[in-house]
Every structure is written in C-alpha cells, then in structure tokens.
Amino acid sequence: MRADNMYIYLDGIKLYAxxxxxxxxxxVGAEYxxxxxxxxxxxxxxxxxxxxxTVNYADVFAAVKEEMDIPSRLLExxxxxxxxHLFDRFPSIVEIKIxxxxxxxxxxxxxxxxxxxxxxxx
Length: 122
What we know:
The chain is α+β, with helices and mostly antiparallel strands.
C-alpha cells in the first residue's frame, strides 16, 4: 500500500500579537488565527508508529509562535517569515499552505476578520 499527498494540519491556532500599519495596532495588539497545511511524507511514521519520520506539530506550533511574536506591519510579511522558518527547520516539508487572520480589525467597519493566505513550495 502506498499513500499519496500526505498532510499535517494545524487549524485555527489562536495567538495574541502586535502586527499592523497603525501605531495603535503595535501597542494594543490583537487576536490572530493561523491555519497550516503541511505536505510531507509521513509514511515511515505511519507504518512504525514512531515520531521520527514525521513532523512534530508541537514543534511546528513553537516555530509559528516564535514568528508571531515578532511585530510586523503586514500580515503578508508574517506568513512569508513563518513559511521560511518552517522550511528551514523541517526539511521534509515540501509544501506549506498558510492562512493568517486578524480578528476584529480596526478599520471602521463591522468585520469579523481580515487575512491573507498563500501556498509556498520548497
């Protein structure tokens, strides 16, 4: 048996961070939601029931949190940094789909969230 297109998901990670163009956003901060889909070959881990041979999602979360803790003006820049960090730290990841949403953005409109999404390939 052979599996194809294996993905690890971290969906709806909630973090508090200080991203934004407005000075108020960098002082007050906001709630954010991050979702990831990581393409990797975890067939060895699936067959042997061992953590080696897969990507540890706790380590992925730590890498995402580390990047989210660095204030940036643009969400586009944040997801680029997260993807670069994950590719550098986890060589078995070949594709990353990432979405980042700011909750209740300060833009004078009744809007639940705004965000960006991209798919990065190694």
